[in-house]
Write a structure and sequence with these properties.
The protein has 294 residues and is α/β, with parallel strands linked by helices. The protein has twelve helices and nine strands. Helix 1 crosses helix 2, helix 1 runs parallel beside helix 4 and helix 6 crosses helix 7.
């Protein structure tokens, strides 16, 4: 039997529905078009087109992986983030659109710093794929950045993504346990740290629990371990007038705010996602800083 785009799409959709994958049709289309490098319009208009046997085998292998709840973009090996194409590995979180909100929130401050100083130094703690730092560098050409991560594999992936997006002349990746191997001061300290309570990790969706690295998910008994470390050490690495931006869980605004306030920081901005949920907090040290975000 000859395989066509339509027949493989129908096969994938049926497998995904049986596996209780919520957006079965969307994922089927995204997976197949990604594997064949087809734009959405072509996929929709060329449904009767015959698919070569070797491509059909690749598609069926990928369908089986998605039916086992491996995320589509992990199967494809990359994902778009803030206009960049980022590779990922077992050592990194999958970059997600919600994290673009902290990028948007920090760009005005980065540009203001450039206007005042002629440049802007950024560090992304727990950088993973490098997504947040690289997105900021792409938006602010005068900025330079450091991405730090405890995982050697993540550091290598961040370096590869910097090269892939021609940002490696302004980006350095360092293997470090938070600030341990970091020297100097930065105008922006940013992080999307692990913030999920240990007891909750096992109940996460399999796409997250089984494929995102535990190191990037588990925030300790109350989900605040990483915030405590960052808050306790950030002042020594923050340039005068600099800011810290951290992503948070939707219900963590007050508790994370308290952790930083105990260490001499104050909230100058809160960043919400498109659903209106709190997504990130921006802090200055002491009485420094002006509100520049959304």
């Amino acid at each position: 039997m000859t395989d066509t785009l339509d027949s493989l799409f129908a096969e994938a959709k049926a497998r995904f529905l049986k596996a209780h994958i919520g957006e079965a049709a969307f994922d089927a289309r995204l997976l197949i078009s990604g594997l064949l490098d087809l734009p959405a319009a072509a996929f929709m208009t060329r449904g009767s087109e015959v698919v070569a046997p070797e491509d059909a085998r690749r598609i069926r292998a990928a369908i089986a992986r998605r039916a086992a709840h491996e995320p589509v973009h992990r199967i494809l090996g990359s994902r778009e983030f803030y206009g960049l194409t980022l590779g990922m590995s077992k050592d990194t979180l999958e970059p997600r659109p919600d994290s673009e909100m902290i990028v948007e929130g920090l760009i005005p401050f980065a540009r203001k710093t450039v206007a005042e100083k002629g440049g802007c130094r950024i560090i992304d703690l727990g950088t993973g794929t490098g997504a947040i730092c690289l997105a900021l560098l792409s938006a602010v050409p005068e900025a330079i950045g450091v991405g730090s991560d405890l995982s050697a594999g993540a550091v290598e992936m961040a370096r590869a993504n910097a090269r892939r997006n021609t940002l490696d002349d302004r980006f350095v990746a360092v293997e470090s346990d938070w600030f341990e191997q970091i020297e100097g001061a930065f105008d922006i300290i940013v992080s999307n740290p692990p913030y999920i309570r240990t007891e909750v990790v096992a109940s996460l969706a399999p796409e997250v629990r089984d494929h995102d690295p535990a190191l990037a998910l588990d925030g300790g008994a109350d989900g605040l371990d990483a915030y405590r470390i960052i808050a306790a050490n950030a002042a020594g690495h923050l340039a005068k007038g600099g800011v810290i931006g951290v992503e948070i869980g939707y219900d963590q605004l007050q508790v994370v705010g308290h952790v930083f306030e105990e260490n001499g920081f104050r909230i100058i901005d809160r960043i919400r996602d498109l659903g209106g949920n709190d997504r990130a907090i921006v802090f200055s040290f002491g009485n420094e800083g002006l509100k520049t975000g959304t």
